[in-house]
Structure formats: structure tokens, C-alpha cells
Fold:
Amino acid sequence: MDDRAGEGRAYGNLGNVYQTLGKFHEAIEYHSESLSIAKEVGDRASEGSACCNLGKAFLSLRKIEDAIEHHSQHLSIAKEVGDRAGEGKAYGGLGEAYHNLGKFQEAIESHCQHLSIAKEVGDRASEGRAYGNLSIVYKRLGKFQEAIEYHGQNLSIAKEVGDRYGEGVAYSHLGKVYLHLKKLQEAKECFKSSLQVLDIARASLKSEDALKISFRNFYSGTYNGLWSTLLLLDRTDEALCAVEQGRAQALVDGLKIKYGLTALPSGLLKPTETISYISNAFSTQTVFLVVQNNTIVFWVTNKERKFELRIIKIDGRSVLETTLRKIGAGVGVRCENRSLDEPTDDSWK
Structure:
């Protein structure tokens, strides 16, 4: 039909889908096509939207200078065409980019501009996101009381507008602040609330398994926060269950999207029962481990299901090499491979 404007919008929509799937290089290709067509037909509003989307994609790839360039272009166009909501989004994108560069004062100023415009145009969802972004910056600056206050505002608005994902994110960030402050009970409750809400939001994706895997890339950090908090509360077995729950869900997602499996063991997502079975079925000790940054945590359990906890800090050597050396294991050690692929040199990193 030779509808170039419609063609440009289609490219933009495809770019948005690829961006949601975490395929940022493909997203950039489609958004770039959308931008080119918008310039060709003289559609400044669509040109601004394409710049906004490109800014987000470049930010996801940690190409911060490119992100700033495109968000700045979006801001200029939004001001030109009188798009106040778009202007606010541009300030929000710039705030995230400045945050990534460690320019915290510029980040705060941009997020405050976003917040002010969101209030002006009555966009409660954007207002909540602006509060959330401000709280993250204040946490980085060590201003934890301000961070808690802004996270609370974000959480309240997310509940009000029915944004389940935003609600789960707000709870998770609050948990991280409380964990940093060693307010462990508050942290535990926030992490648990986050996982409950995120599971509800995730279930709404129904059969979109690719989206689910992209989705859970965020809340794997929430599981980490929960089990770390439970360890500090001396709830060793609960911490192990939290670790295994997170890994089991990731395994299920991988099986579904890679192999199309739907009939999965009923107990796969019930780590308490699984751990109990392993403890009772084998006469020897069983070791569960998790790696986080430069720390390896071991849970050693015996037939009576008594846990012994060991925590090892590792140096620059590979995790596998360090682990085998620390526990005195020889070449005959057998480890479960959860990767679903053939082992690679970096499968333990």
C-alpha cells in the first residue's frame, strides 16, 4: 500500500517486542528503521518515540553515551511538539543513563523533572517509576532514609494503578535497603512479598515462556536477597529452600522454552520435599552449594537432615578450581550439571 508511516510504526512495534524479549540488538535494528522512516515522512512525534526506544535499548546494552544522545534528541523533539508526557519520559531515560555513569546529581535532577511532569499530566504510573528511580540513586549515595521514603511512594502508587510488576520491584528494592541496614525481619518480609507479587505477575504471561525467562532475570536477585537474609537470621534450612526454589523455577523455564516440555515432575517446584527426600534416601552426606560474587555457600546435610553451613571466600582462581581445592576433592568428584548443555570452560563462573 506504500504506507511509509504505517511501515515505520510496524518497525517500532517489532522493536518494542524484541526489547521486551531482551533481544536488544534486534530491537535497535527495528527502531533504527522506524526512526529513518519517521525522518523521511517528516513525522516529528514518531521520530521522538523512536529516539526514546533507541535510548532504552542502548541503555540495556550499557552503551551509555548512545543512550544519552538519543534520550537528549527525544527531549528536544518532545519540547518542540509540545509533548509533555514524552518530555517526562526523556528526563527519566536521561536520569537512568546519568546514574549508570555515576553522575548522581544529574540523575537526581533529571528524575525530579520526570516526577514533576508526571504529576502535572496526571500520569500516576510514571510518577511511581520516577519515585523508584530516585530511591535507587539515593541508596547509591548512602541516603537510606530517603531511599526508603521514595520506595514507599513507588510501592503505594504501583498498588493503586494495579502494576503488579512495579509492586514486586518496589518490594525487592525495599528489601535490599533493609538488608543493607541489617533490619533483617523487614528485609525478609519485603523479599517474600516481592516474590509473591512477581509470581502473580509472571503467571499472567500464560504461555509466553520467552517473556517469562526475560522476566525472571530481575527477580533472581530477589531470591538471592531472601536467602542471604535468612542465613543472617540463622534460618539455614529456609535459606536452602529459597535457593532451590529459585533454581527450580529457572530450570522449569529452561526446559519449557528449549525442549517444549510440559509434563514436568510434580515435586520439581517443591524444594522442601526434594531436600527431605535426598536427605533420607542417601546414607552419605549431601552437599548443596550456591555461588554469589566471590562467595561460595555450602549446605552439608546428613540422613537426620541436620545442616552444617560452610561459607568460603574465593580469590581470582576459577570457582571450580577453588571449590575442589577447599573441600579436598579429587578428580573423581561428580557434580550435577544444571546447565542443560554440554559443560563449557565458564559453566561454573
In short: DSSP finds 14 helices and three strands in the chain. The two ends are 52 Å apart (CA to CA). The longest strand covers residues 286-292. The CA atoms of residues 92 and 309 lie 44 Å apart.
